[in-house]
Amino acid sequence: MILNEAIQEIVDNVLSVSEELEPNNIEEMTGMIKSSKNVFVMGLGRSGLVARAFAMRLMHLEISVYVVGETTTPALTTEDCLISISGSGETFSIISAAEIARKRGTNIIAVTSYVDSTLGKMADLVVHIKGRTKIDSEKNYITRQINGKHQSLSPLGTLFEVTSLIFLDGLIAQLMVEMGKTEQDMKARHTVIE
Amino acid sequence: MILNEAIQEIVDNVLSVSEELEPNNIEEMTGMIKSSKNVFVMGLGRSGLVARAFAMRLMHLEISVYVVGETTTPALTTEDCLISISGSGETFSIISAAEIARKRGTNIIAVTSYVDSTLGKMADLVVHIKGRTKIDSEKNYITRQINGKHQSLSPLGTLFEVTSLIFLDGLIAQLMVEMGKTEQDMKARHTVIE
Amino acid sequence: MILNEAIQEIVDNVLSVSEELEPNNIEEMTGMIKSSKNVFVMGLGRSGLVARAFAMRLMHLEISVYVVGETTTPALTTEDCLISISGSGETFSIISAAEIARKRGTNIIAVTSYVDSTLGKMADLVVHIKGRTKIDSEKNYITRQINGKHQSLSPLGTLFEVTSLIFLDGLIAQLMVEMGKTEQDMKARHTVIE
Amino acid sequence: MILNEAIQEIVDNVLSVSEELEPNNIEEMTGMIKSSKNVFVMGLGRSGLVARAFAMRLMHLEISVYVVGETTTPALTTEDCLISISGSGETFSIISAAEIARKRGTNIIAVTSYVDSTLGKMADLVVHIKGRTKIDSEKNYITRQINGKHQSLSPLGTLFEVTSLIFLDGLIAQLMVEMGKTEQDMKARHTVIE
Q1: Pair C9, C153: CB distance under 8 Å
Q2: Which of B1, B19, B166 minimises the CB distance to C23?
Q3: ipTM score here?
Q4: D40 has which bridge partners?
Q5: Is C54 near chain B, with CB under 8 Å?
Q6: Is residue D156 less than 8 Å (CB to CB) from chain B?
Q7: In percent, how much of chain B has pLDDT > 70?
Q8: Could you point out which of B170, D24, D43, D44 has its C-alpha 20 to 30 Å from the C-alpha of D71?
Q9: Which of D68, D138, C153 is nearest to B186 (CA)?
Q10: Which architecture characterizes domain D2-188 according to CATH?
Q11: CA-CA distance, C44 to C92, in Å (whole number)?
């Protein structure tokens, strides 16, 4: 089925990104998260859902975390860090938020496909999560055309979004070990009202 | 215009509720809020929006507050209080949440039109916010019929919802004075990312 | 109690705004809403909650409505209208959204305290909802100082937000009559999953 | 790094689920989605974020879709289908919603790890997305203990949630082909206000 091919395309991207992650980079990211007073996460559209899914797990680890745009999110301070998730690194309100964060002395971590994007350049730390690049997209298009398949199986930002989610879930595992937290600890913080 | 009549109907309800509020009751509510480690607010539909609007101001007052259902809301504890906003006091998931809160030893404050509702009976403290009662609704219906107006100008839960919002904004003013907070203090906590 | 005074302050603003509403202006607003293919509403912070509360009632009236920023909100078209709620009329992302709406030929209705603000000037139709103006605020400050009360009882955007909500609920009553909808019709559209 | 191991654990689950998917089952699901007047999606916690991410793409495909709990979601009808995402299939409010859906004659599709759960039994169609089962969890525990690793690398519902997201993104690819939609078509529906 097309469905299985699409899943394979996503898995291939995830594994390729996983191989390229640099231990120093990751260590710096977990370090910033652990040493911040509050962690703020931000993303728009599906990247915003990825940000929220990550925030839930940070909360389970008893890290003080806020989602930009939710009801009880306070102002940024110099003791906080802002994790911005944006495939293009050019999303308008992500850039505006990063500008405010810089003025207020908040550390910025960018999770993006484009290290040289406006967001990438503004960030104190950049994690590169490859999605479908324009060049890939053209090459794939020709391959698909030859094979009689004319459309992408992971439309729009799908590859970046799903890969970011899995990367951040991996980071949660990393944080669990570094912080000596067990799944039982996390369950105790799990919201009980559903 | 119909619009002005509808506004007057809402204002009449607000003023009538304001007159009937009992100082002891209010003092107990602000006391519970100030002495809780975390305040949780909950409501469904438009009452949920009222809960959120209240939560934002509590956050501006530096009270630790969470909205049930948002991303980073943790589990309830015995040191917390849950403020449930429900006109009927019978909304299913509000009742389920109150049951969990009771099991976990969390104080419950009900904001409802029905003191004798399931929620009202479960709560440690009830604030009565009159909306359109069934009897009122019938009487109004006859008055309207006589005047040739056959429909309500504040449909569904409108009276309860708007009156609750204004009551809770009044409570914020009360808390500001009790806590010695100024508008400037609140501004400093206001989210800066928009 | 301070609480009753704060409620009175809000009610006074609501009644004063209600008196100043112009029938032509309101008629134009309900006309635009009824003739649009889709209505989009937008606001930030507590104004965003007001926008959502209004959107729920529009949905109950079977008007096709979307909240900007929610999951399933599509792109704007020339057949749609965008209702932007902003006290200052200068909120950054409200202005950016209005710019996009203009480029796409979407009608803009501004609900704001400042008719001459950037948003006010971009809009096809402006409804003026007075909040606490700077001058009012100073005058009130002196009155309060004389009376020994040094702080505002309706901090930040409270007056604008609550007054906008009640104005928009009045507009729903107006639309009900104009569209010949009853409360029973609205109940049938009410979400049943809670 | 632990992070890479955790990513591998997730990928293994995704590939194993992908292999076990039955074409008839998938065809029935895409059929129900295409023939429904409105599609409703529902999930709680991180499964709710997965539901929203799926809803965005359905909207891009011009399928009329609503997220249960969002502002403008109307009542269910006999012409609609409800897609409920729940790892355990026992989440309280998911079950309540499914009961209401059944009373109203709405088709139910369950995406769950437990085909025999309360939700699974109520559904008209069940898609099985394996997560960490209790037995797996014990076996893994022993393996981990032997290897000196005492905690899970994909805590709580992570495996189910991520695998469901990728499965549903695969389903979007399937629907694109079945409906003859291109990525360009989807871009045109993409929200332009950010």
Answers
A1: yes
A2: B1
A3: 0.92
A4: D66, D82
A5: no
A6: no
A7: 88
A8: B170
A9: C153
A10: 3-Layer(aba) Sandwich (3.40)
A11: 10
